[in-house]
UniProtKB/TrEMBL annotation:
<keyword id="KW-0732">Signal</keyword>
<feature type="signal peptide">
    <location>
        <begin position="1"/>
        <end position="21"/>
    </location>
</feature>
<protein>
    <submittedName>
        <fullName>Uncharacterized protein</fullName>
    </submittedName>
</protein>
Length: 119
């Protein structure tokens, strides 16, 4: 019984690592000449990590992911807060055709962000 308990414990210890990874995790340029080292400020970059979107003075928890058939896209409920207020919206995320960037569509707007190079 001890062997089984140790394996179950190991499995649960590894579970958060496998669930936390998202295909959209990364740092993305707001503009072509954005500073990738500066996340969450004007002229800097945006970041997605562990299902949290970090924008300019805002962060959104990305919940209830729903795959969109035959598009390679995911629809999320976004629970956002910033500048002293909170709100909820839906957003669709989709990698671009060559996987070098990200499309984000929400609230009547469509954005394309290039992925920042890894340090």
């Amino acid at each position: 019984m001890r062997f089984v308990f140790r394996n179950v414990t190991t499995a649960f210890a590894l579970l958060p690592m496998t669930l936390a990874a998202s295909p959209y995790d990364g740092v993305y340029k707001q503009t072509a000449n954005a500073e990738c080292a500066l996340v969450g400020v004007d002229g800097g970059a945006l970041k997605i990590e562990d299902d949290i979107f970090y924008g300019v003075e805002v962060q959104c928890r990305m919940t209830n992911p729903t795959d969109i058939d035959d598009m390679g896209a995911t629809l999320y409920d976004m629970q956002c807060s910033g500048e002293g207020t909170s709100w909820s919206e839906r957003a669709m995320l989709m990698p671009d055709a060559d996987d070098s960037g990200l499309y984000m569509i929400w609230s009547g707007y469509a954005f394309r962000y290039d992925r920042c190079d890894s340090p």
